[in-house]
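To illustrate the input format used throughout this study, we show a single complete record. The first block contains the structure-token representation of the backbone; no residue identities are included at this stage. The design step must infer an amino acid for every position from geometry alone.
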């Protein structure tokens, strides 16, 4: 009996994807977890692995086609012509949100596919772990990253500490905020003034346009400008860049920015939040997953590094380099691209003296960084050259005031100006 593989639930409200490449052809016999399709979602371009072994009986999609979640992508049959093994539900969902765990995980069918997200499968390949030999501890028997690390003899990642919610004074019943909406007027006929050319937007560019317009329309943006004296930090990086490279670490300013922002967010939790206008509530996130904007030839993509507050700077530097490489190569998974609570965008490599970034909705703040430059500064009555880094903190004025933004930015700057302390503060 033939089995159909449909576009899985992609999570975070994603409802469709554009087919970028079909990596198999009808008649191919493939194994579970073999590359099947490349799709571009509202997040980025990702690779979908095959959820089962068998023969590709029919391909229902083609490059350039936009398909909805639940649409049939590929029909499988067994390599010998019989029906293909059905994928476990969790394996057929490319990094979809986990379902609540049952009281006891059901046993896996002998020879059946191993339930694990694409990110966990990639980790297993990198560590040389055979997933079929790993007992899953996740919901429904899903194999987690920690299960793979344990099987490889590595220490599981530290689980983020749960910070107890701070008590707040009652302020009366929650009320919804006013809706925001605007209908654009029709465009003029540009042809009347000269020749024109119309170019269709790519799926990713169209998504970026929609999200930026949504953010600008829904969020009252306010921006705080400041500068950090990173003379000592820049000197430390230059002194240690070669030694770090020998250890396989790409040492950059961005990893220090990530760490400084994460630690400052602990003291200013309203910037690590989302606003629920319908409920009239602010959702404070007791985790610190930071997005870092990465420029690619397809557009701006924001992958996420998790638990930044709990990781040392050197580990962040390693993860950042690997993550940026996957994004630029179009190999990022959906797990790499979602769940962020605060974003940093660093345009310093491209120049400029500053920028006002748009908040990555539904977050409430974003830190923009421009190129550091030597400037004359008065210190102890003397004019001396110092390396100054322009910072712009843009935030949602509904959840924080200007004084809050100034204090938050000052806490980030204070940490950047004391790099030795930043190296061990975590």
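Output of the design step:
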């Amino acid at each position: 009996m033939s089995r159909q593989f449909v576009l899985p639930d992609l999570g975070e409200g994603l409802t469709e994807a554009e087919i970028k490449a079909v990596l198999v052809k009808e008649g191919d016999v493939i194994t579970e977890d073999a590359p099947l399709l490349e799709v571009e979602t509202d997040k980025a371009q990702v690779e979908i692995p095959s959820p089962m072994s068998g023969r590709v009986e029919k391909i229902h999609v083609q490059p350039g086609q936009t398909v909805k979640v639940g649409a049939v992508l590929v029909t499988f049959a067994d390599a010998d012509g019989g029906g293909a093994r059905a994928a476990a539900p969790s394996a057929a969902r490319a990094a979809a949100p986990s379902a609540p765990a049952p009281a006891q995980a059901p046993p896996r069918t002998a020879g059946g596919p191993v339930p694990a997200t694409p990110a966990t499968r990639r980790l297993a390949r990198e560590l040389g772990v055979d997933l079929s030999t790993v007992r899953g501890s996740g919901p429904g028997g899903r194999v987690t990253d920690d299960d793979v690390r344990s099987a490889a003899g590595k220490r599981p990642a530290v689980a983020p500490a749960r910070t107890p919610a701070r008590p707040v004074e009652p302020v009366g019943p929650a009320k919804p905020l006013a809706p925001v909406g605007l209908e654009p007027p029709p465009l003029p006929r540009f042809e009347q003034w000269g020749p024109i050319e119309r170019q269709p937007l790519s799926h990713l560019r169209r998504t970026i346009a929609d999200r930026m317009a949504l953010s600008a329309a829904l969020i009252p943006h306010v921006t705080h400008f400041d500068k950090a004296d990173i003379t000592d930090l820049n000197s430390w990086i230059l002194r240690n860049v070669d030694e770090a490279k020998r250890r396989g670490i790409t040492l950059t300013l961005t990893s220090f920015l990530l760490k400084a922002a994460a630690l400052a967010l602990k003291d200013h939790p309203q910037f690590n939040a989302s606003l629920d206008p319908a409920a009239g509530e602010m959702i404070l996130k007791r985790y610190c997953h930071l997005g870092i904007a990465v420029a690619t030839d397809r557009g701006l993509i924001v992958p996420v590094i998790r638990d930044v507050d709990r990781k040392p700077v050197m580990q962040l530097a390693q993860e950042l380099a690997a993550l940026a490489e996957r994004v630029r190569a179009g190999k990022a998974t959906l797990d790499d691209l979602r769940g962020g609570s605060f974003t940093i965008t660093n345009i310093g490599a491209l120049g400029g003296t500053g920028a006002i970034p748009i908040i990555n909705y539904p977050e409430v703040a974003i830190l923009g960084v421009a190129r550091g430059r030597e400037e004359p500064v008065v210190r102890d009555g003397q004019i001396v050259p110092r390396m100054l880094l322009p910072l712009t903190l843009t935030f949602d004025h509904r959840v924080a005031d200007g004084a809050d933004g100034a204090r938050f930015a000052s806490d980030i700057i204070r940490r950047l100006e004391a790099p030795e302390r930043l190296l061990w503060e975590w």
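Structural context for interpreting the output: Residues 6 and 72 are 4 Å apart (CA to CA). The two ends are 55 Å apart (CA to CA).
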